[in-house]
């Protein structure tokens, strides 16, 4: 159940960092009176995320009587979870440098409006992480052998608890970690987890009769990859790597994992620096310099770098 622990750790740390930014801004701004509204918004987001996760599980186990409908529902949620995972890891890589400033700006606007705006801003900042966690957890747990049982829930809770402790220590300056490397490594692992979820979704589509090839195996390495051994259970539970996958499952796993990993691990290009404005040519005569003066001034104004 390391996959569900990783999901709880990654998503929990993102949410914890968001909350710590909001709390630190209020404390430094001498607005501790607004902290209860922030915690109220965070608490409501957590409750709704738990309800959303329970609703997904209840729909799968109680509302869908036919096995084909249940397989189709799990397939759709698996694809949705892969989309959310992919969007989340790439968004976090691009927005990590500006998220603190954006949150402070939004919180400043909310403080000017009132208490409900502060609570709503904190709620919206956390609810996205909560809904993503619920959906990804359900899909990852379903793709593993144990399903959404007590073990998966404990692993998720352990990951979230670890994230809260790390976030608190970072807030208190008692711990220093390279968050860039942390999110890079966990993002790469989550891509492999998402590849396993997509493979599981393809298998569910095949069992529901939407996709063909349920009995067309790509290979069978059961003699080498023992599913009962610890390494077989780890690969199956973490990345849904099985000994006898179908052809479509294998294609889906490779077609997602390889290009997404390459794009994610590729170092982003450094932003281009603005070119220095060219110096205006020296005027040959006084008559020639007269019309060139305003134009040169305007050009230098337009090309000068803006100061924050």
TrEMBL record:
NCBIfam families hit by this protein: EfeU
Keyword Membrane: yes
Taxon lineage: Bacteria, Bacillati, Actinomycetota, Actinomycetes, Micromonosporales
Record region (Disordered): 272-308
Keywords in alphabetical order: Membrane, Transmembrane, Transmembrane helix
Superkingdom classification of source: Bacteria
Transmembrane segments: 6-26, 38-56, 76-95, 107-127, 147-170, 182-202, 243-265
Biased composition (Low complexity): 284-301
Localization (cell): Membrane
Entry GO MF terms: ferrous iron transmembrane transporter activity
GO cellular component, one term: high-affinity iron permease complex
Keyword Transmembrane helix set for record: yes
Membrane topology annotation: Multi-pass membrane protein
Protein's name according to its UniProt entry: High-affinity iron transporter
Primary location class: membrane
Family: Belongs to the oxidase-dependent Fe transporter (OFeT) (TC 9.A.10.1) family.
């Amino acid at each position: 159940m390391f996959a569900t622990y990783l999901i709880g750790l990654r998503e929990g740390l993102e949410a914890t960092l968001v909350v710590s930014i909001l709390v630190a801004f209020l404390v430094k701004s001498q607005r501790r009176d607004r902290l209860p509204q922030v915690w109220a918004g965070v608490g409501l987001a957590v409750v709704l995320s738990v309800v959303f996760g329970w609703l997904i599980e209840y729909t799968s186990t109680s509302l869908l009587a036919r096995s084909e409908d249940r397989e189709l529902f799990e397939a759709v949620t698996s694809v949705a979870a892969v989309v959310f995972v992919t969007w989340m890891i790439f968004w976090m890589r691009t927005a990590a440098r500006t998220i603190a400033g954006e949150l402070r700006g939004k919180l400043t606007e909310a403080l000017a409006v009132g208490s409900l705006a502060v609570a709503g801003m904190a709620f919206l900042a956390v609810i996205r992480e909560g809904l993503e966690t619920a959906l990804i957890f359900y899909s990852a747990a379903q793709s593993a052998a144990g399903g959404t049982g007590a073990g998966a829930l404990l692993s998720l809770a352990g990951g979230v608890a670890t994230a809260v402790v790390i976030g608190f220590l970072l807030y208190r300056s008692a711990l220093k970690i390279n968050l860039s490397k942390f999110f890079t490594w966990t993002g790469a692992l989550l891509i492999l987890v998402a590849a396993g979820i997509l493979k599981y979704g393809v298998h569910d589509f095949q069992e529901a009769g939407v996709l063909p090839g349920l009995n067309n195996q790509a290979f069978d390495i059961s003699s080498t990859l023992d599913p009962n051994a610890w390494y077989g259970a780890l690969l199956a539970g973490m990345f849904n790597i099985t000994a006898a996958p179908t052809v479509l499952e294998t294609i889906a796993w490779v077609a997602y994992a390889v290009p997404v990993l390459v794009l994610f691990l590729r170092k982003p290009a450094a932003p281009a620096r603005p070119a220095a404005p060219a110096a205006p040519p020296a005027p040959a005569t006084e008559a020639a310099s007269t019309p060139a003066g305003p134009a040169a001034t305007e050009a230098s104004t337009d090309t000068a770098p803006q100061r924050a």
